[in-house]
Write a structure and sequence with these properties.
Blueprint lengths: L3 E8 L4 H14 L3 E7 L8 E9 L12 E6 L2 H6 L4 E10 L6 H4 L8 H11 L2 E5 L1 H7 L6 H10 L6 H11 L5 H15 L15
Length: 208
């Protein structure tokens, strides 16, 4: 990967901004010019959070041009669907297998896409789609706050950057008392990538 445009999307409280900080720092550690921009919106209320991160030899703008996203990292299924039009036709989607109902859905004003609808839309939008059990791994590790690092572990397997570089950056970016937990979360996420690709089948029932 000589250069890459990433778009991270999720909802407030999932650790998306920390993930974008780590992703930017990994790019810098690998020798790239890096730019990033976070759009927080109503993040503190569980609203949408979007981060643009760009790696390259020379990056002049922190905002990924429309339709030029190489990798969409979504912390929630609906947030993945919202941003599919930003992907390159040959792009990659990595999505956390979790549903978080927005107010419009919980109040009955809208419906959440079905599993079949979500699967079809994801497959249509990108050549490569990966569904990571991020929340489930966090639960297994006893702390769902490591969800963001689990997903970064999965993302790392889609890049040419050595896992040791990722681990070194993560260890410097999280509080000392949870370094060991986050490093474990990273490796669990990286291992999960191998069996997470969505092919012609419909995705399995997702975690709410």
């Amino acid at each position: 990967m000589k250069s890459c445009n990433f778009l991270i999307t999720g909802v407030g409280g999932q650790g998306t901004v920390v993930a974008s900080d780590i992703l930017a720092a990994v790019g810098l550690a690998a020798g790239y010019d890096v730019k990033k921009s976070d759009v927080l919106g109503l993040a503190v209320r569980g609203g949408a959070v979007i981060s643009h991160i760009r790696w390259g030899d020379v990056v002049r703008s922190p905002i990924v041009p429309e339709g030029k996203v190489d990798v969409l990292l979504a912390f929630e299924i609906l947030e993945a669907l919202r941003w599919l039009d930003q992907l390159r036709p040959e792009g990659t989607i990595l999505v956390n297998r979790q549903r978080i109902y927005p107010v419009t859905v919980s109040s009955g004003l809208a419906s959440y896409p079905t599993i079949e609808e979500s699967s079809a839309a994801l497959r249509k939008a990108a050549q490569n789609v990966y569904l990571a059990p991020g929340l489930e791994i966090g639960q297994e590790l006893g702390n769902t706050r490591v969800l963001n690092v689990v997903l970064l572990g999965a993302l790392s397997g889609l890049t040419e950057i050595s896992p040791e570089t990722w681990v070194d950056v993560i260890a410097k970016r999280v509080p000392p008392k949870v370094v060991e937990l986050n490093v474990l979360a990273f490796w669990r996420g990286r291992q999960a990538l191998a069996g997470s690709r969505l092919a012609g089948e419909t995705m399995a029932e997702d975690v709410r």
